[in-house]
Amino acid sequence: MWSACRHLFLATVVVATAAFGSGAAAAVTVGADTVERVASITPSAGQEVGIAHPVTIRFAEPVENRARAERFVDVRAGDSLPGTLAWTGDRELTWTPDGFLPARTGISVVAGGARTEFRTNAGVTAVANMSAHTFTVSIGGQIARTMPASMGKPGWETPTGTFPVLEKFRSIVFDSRTIGIPLNHPEGYLINGEYAERLTWSGVFVHSAPWSVDSQGYANVSHGCINLAPDDARWYYETVGIGDPVTVHW
């Protein structure tokens, strides 16, 4: 879960910054202190990502003074953007935007003595309505396509909330053992999937599901994934970017 700690940037105390490009760690001296060296920042320089993409800062060494490291993190698009900071290890700090990043905008990141800049796409948002059994995609705030869908059945409900797309796969093998269901169980499966977007590391995807087309738009029959018809799944795969948000609700 994300920490409730919010970022604070004191711009007046930064003495120097180093742009990323070579991947080398950078450091900055603040008074008598040296801010922790940053090894990398993602998204990387020049990358285009979705409007819910987090920023991940990896430090060259374990960070002992986390509060100090957090003070020198700033994410902005002109003005500083509000976000939440959370540590996912002793060398890794993640900044998650409060709401969505502005679309088609350059986003700059300063972390200690390192800085980089990436860009957001047009803003591809999706809403999975588990009661209506629909998956609605908007681009730049305008509805582009509403598709029949099938989500998690009772006992395997799709989690609610907003999730950024983590990965995309043109083809993938879905193995029930990865979510704790043996293949010899009545609910077990091992199937080849297509046009898949990962929403959670625990195994929730949006993907093509020709086997559930008859239920899409009418009933929730999956093990937690969002099932789409093959043509719809292909269109979404070709449209969505890493970091674009999917909101799931009843």
Automatic annotation (TrEMBL):
Which Pfam families does the entry link to? Big_10, YkuD
User: What is annotated as the active site?
Assistant: H207, C225
Where in this chain does the record put each L,D-TPase catalytic domain?
124-249
Q: Which residues form the signal peptide?
A: 1-27
InterPro entries listed in its UniProt record: Big_10, LD-transpeptidase, LD_TPept_cat_dom, Transpep_catalytic_dom
**What pathway, per the record?**
Cell wall biogenesis; peptidoglycan biosynthesis; Glycan biosynthesis
Alphabetical GO biological process terms? cell wall organization; peptidoglycan-protein cross-linking; regulation of cell shape
Is the keyword Membrane assigned to this protein? yes
Q: Cite the CDD domains for this sequence.
A: LDT_IgD_like_1 (cd13431), YkuD_like (cd16913)
Q: Which UniProt keywords apply?
A: Acyltransferase, Cell membrane, Cell shape, Cell wall biogenesis/degradation, Lipoprotein, Membrane, Palmitate, Peptidoglycan synthesis, Signal, Transferase
Q: Which PANTHER family match?
A: L,D-TRANSPEPTIDASE, L,D-TRANSPEPTIDASE YCIB-RELATED
Name by which UniProt lists this protein: Lipoprotein-anchoring transpeptidase ErfK/SrfK
Biological source species: Nocardia puris
- Identify the taxonomic lineage of the organism of origin: Bacteria, Bacillati, Actinomycetota, Actinomycetes, Mycobacteriales
